[in-house]
Amino acid sequence: MMNRVENHVEPIEIRGRAKKKSLSKGMLSSLEGAAQGIRVRISRFQCESDERDSIADKLTVRDDALNATLTALKEQIEELKGELTIYKVVLSHGMLAFGPKQYKMDVPKLEKFKGERSAKEVDNFLWVMG
Question: How many Å separate Cα 55 from the centre of its chain?
Answer without folding.
Answer: 17
